[in-house]
Design goal:
This protein is an alpha+beta fold. The protein is built from 16 helices and 26 strands. The strands form eight sheets. Strands 15, 16, 19, 20, 21, 24, 25 and 26 form an eight-stranded mixed β-sheet that branches. Strands 12-11-10-13 form a four-stranded mixed β-sheet, with no helix packed on it. About 0% of the residues have low confidence.
């Protein structure tokens, strides 16, 4: 284990070729650590089990970390050929309980463990070759090809931690201890906790764009907040301290719980934290791969809902107001305690980065100033739902890392745990989870005279998404592209009986809502989860909100509302999913109608799409294609253009090329026509393109 311990990399300074070797070593240690984690499974059959019913089987995560490298390198055009398109679709998208996740086992044809291992070997070989041959210069920033390599490595490190939680949730008989480092063997009586004053200050949060360490998009931008004086607990809440809440029937007393928390408690019938076990009169604690007699002086590990209920119980019991820290309060605590950042320490000043243990440890082992476990041991839940700082921008190569969590339902955890490595162990790390999820996360108490105010980001501020919402949902019907296209489609498919529809490139989802009353079932997919989370909000809540530019610094606050009848129809008939149109999952088949809505110009290989899309349709199924034929929009390689060039001295149009690629499998049903598409930029500015619409029927 010790030989695999490392820290994230300074991407600004040093010699380029030495930096290449440093990144190579960082990749190899990350890869080895990831594979070592799974040696704790009793045998390969356990890969097909779920630690959590709301997550994929463990095999998914073994494949996912490898697939991620290939998909991002391919998207960034660093590599130009996939290794295994089937795997790179199957293992592409993880789970955060979003509406677009479909965990129905019948939709997944899982390969053998050996096949996934063989695939991983291929990916490893390709990554080593890429690292060894890719041109390198310093600094390495967002636009640098090596940033994508770092993105894959840091992504894999996240999954080392999250997968350890899933393994921890498996039955004990399915795991083997002693294969992944050394757990802590120290336990005893918990120290008495106390509240220590922390001086308030103006806290500025956000990573500068030229920071020397890799960062996820949510870390950048800037947020300034005035933090009032507060008090924080000297120690993380221990198992012993939390026991009082259990013994006083806290899990069965509704008044301690938030409405969300009580619903969760009632549904799960929880009587204690997930990793606690009670055998007779004795408590035990489940670690990742073993059970030990309860170490009462270790930090309790709970979800946010339990943490909040504990605070409320303690408040009522003592007559003093207790809560969790806000993000800004936690940052101020790290400032007061002069917590060093990851590259600044020789040995980790807390139980973090796997430098000390592969489990939690006593709460009074690692002091920084007057406080203990300011970083490490277990993550600390905060009161703050995650959102982007002012100036937030998504990284184009991973546009759905953060934004799906900007829904007010994901709370930040801060400080890292014993198994947090790489970016997770840095000052600027910002990770968030659903409030009922378990990580290796616990509780630090806070008291403050200042009322808690949580700012919820209810309005979408991403200009690209907001402008698309405005274009699709708030323009007059007579000039609305989606309204006109929907009317045409309804007319053309009115004779069909089943009407199972696939809408590709759904964007913010106006078209499926328009079609929902006329068809039986719609699968609406988009490459970006950033966009489809908007129609999902509309589907779930009946409204969505966004902000668009009026003039310069003036803005419009928009709200789109649908009636309850359409909302119910949408819930029943529409499924929104994230997927890659050039590498669709096998489950996307058997459709009566497929709509390729301005998707050809978004694909790296539109030719491949046209030549294979018939496989997704029933006999005599309908294909509707709308395209502006703008092949330069996404820097599509010239050899993959559909028209817009001369061949043998003669012009080849987009329609010519579509006909050529569909002629063996489809018949053109009607004369193509143009539809105008207006894209909103501001109140006084928009762009216009003309899209050609053609309709095709699959040959019998």
């Amino acid at each position: 284990m010790k030989e695999l311990i490392t820290k994230t990399i300074d991407l600004q300074s040093g010699n380029p070729e030495e930096k290449r070797e440093e990144i190579r070593a960082y990749f190899l240690k990350t890869w080895a650590l990831d594979e070592l984690l799974y040696t704790q499974l009793r045998d390969d059959s356990i890969f097909y089990h779920r630690g959590d019913s709301l997550r994929h089987i463990l095999l998914f995560y073994l494949g996912h970390t490898a697939v991620f490298y290939i998909n991002k390198l391919f998207l960034a055009k660093i590599i130009h050929q996939r290794i295994n398109p089937e795997f790179e679709s199957l293992f592409a998208i993880g789970v955060d309980e979003m509406s677009w996740d479909d965990l129905n086992d019948k939709n997944y044809n899982w390969p053998s463990v050996d096949a996934v291992r063989a695939y991983r070997d291929q990916v490893k070989e390709l990554l080593i070759h890429t690292i060894d041959t890719l041109p390198i210069s310093l600094p390495i920033d967002w636009e640098h090809p090596f940033w994508i390599i770092m993105m894959g490595i840091e992504h894999e490190r996240i999954h080392i931690e999250t997968s350890s939680v899933l393994i921890r949730q498996l039955p004990l008989e399915e795991v083997v201890s002693g294969r992944f480092g050394n757990t802590c063997t120290l336990s005893g009586t918990a120290p008495r906790n106390e509240m220590i004053p922390v001086k308030g200050d103006t806290v500025v949060m956000g990573k500068p764009s030229n920071h020397n360490l890799y960062g996820w998009d949510n870390e950048y931008g800037q947020h300034k907040e005035l933090v009032a004086d507060f008090s924080a607990s000297k120690y993380l809440v221990s198992n012993s301290e939390y026991l009082g809440f259990i013994e006083e029937n806290g899990y069965n007393t509704a008044k301690y719980w938030t409405e969300e928390g009580w619903k969760w408690r009632t549904y799960t019938q929880a009587e204690m934290p997930l990793f606690w076990r009670k055998k007779g009169n004795k408590f035990w604690l489940r670690l990742v791969a073993e059970e030990i007699e309860m170490p009462w002086n270790w930090p309790v590990e709970v979800n946010y809902l339990e943490a909040k209920a504990f605070c409320n119980w303690k408040t009522q019991k003592e007559g003093k107001t207790y809560r969790l820290p806000t993000e800004a309060e936690y940052v101020q605590l790290t400032r007061v305690c002069a917590v060093p950042d990851e590259l600044e320490w020789e040995t980790a000043p807390g139980n973090i980065n796997l430098e000390h243990f592969t489990s939690a440890c006593p709460v009074d082992m690692f002091a920084l100033g007057e406080f203990y476990d300011v970083i490490g041991n277990v993550w600390q839940w905060t009161e703050t739902p995650i959102t982007g700082y002012a100036g937030f921008k998504v990284h184009p190569m991973y546009d759905d890392f953060s934004t799906p969590t900007f829904d007010g339902k994901h709370n930040l955890i801060k400080g890292g745990s014993f198994i947090s490595t790489g970016n997770e162990a840095t000052h600027h790390a910002r990770y968030a989870f659903r409030r009922h999820f378990y990580q290796h996360a616990g509780v630090r108490l806070v008291q403050s005279e200042t009322p808690l105010v949580i700012q919820h980001a209810e309005y979408e501020i991403d200009s690209e998404i907001a402008n698309e919402c405005e274009s699709q949902w708030n323009t007059e019907d007579a000039t609305n592209f989606d309204v006109q296209l929907a009317a045409y489609i309804k007319e053309q498919i009115s004779h069909l009986d089943t009407k199972k529809v696939l809408d590709i490139n759904t964007n913010t989802g106006r078209l499926p809502f328009l079609l929902a009353q006329s068809v039986a079932k719609i699968t609406a997919i988009d490459f970006s989860a950033r966009f489809i989370r908007m129609p999902i909000q509309l589907q779930e809540n009946g409204f969505m909100r966004y902000i668009v530019t009026d003039e310069n610094e003036l803005v419009h606050y928009r709200e789109i509302v649908i009636d309850s009848h359409l909302q119910e129809i949408a819930k029943e008939k529409i499924v929104f999913l994230q997927d890659n149109a050039n590498n669709l999952k096998p489950i996307h088949s058997g459709f009566d109608v497929i709509i390729a809505n301005n998707v050809l110009e978004e694909l790296n290989n539109p030719i491949q799409f046209l030549q294979t899309i018939h496989q997704r349709l029933h006999k005599q199924g309908i294909l509707i294609v709308a395209s502006s034929y703008n092949w330069k929009k996404n820097n599509i390689p010239a050899e993959n253009w559909l028209g817009g060039y001369k061949k043998d001295g003669e012009p080849v149009t987009g329609l010519d090329a579509i006909k050529e690629n569909l002629q063996n499998t489809f018949v053109l049903l009607d004369k193509p026509f143009d539809l105008q598409k207006i894209a909103y930029i501001s109140t006084r500015e928009s762009s216009v393109q003309r899209c050609e619409v053609s309709i095709w029927q699959k040959k019998s």
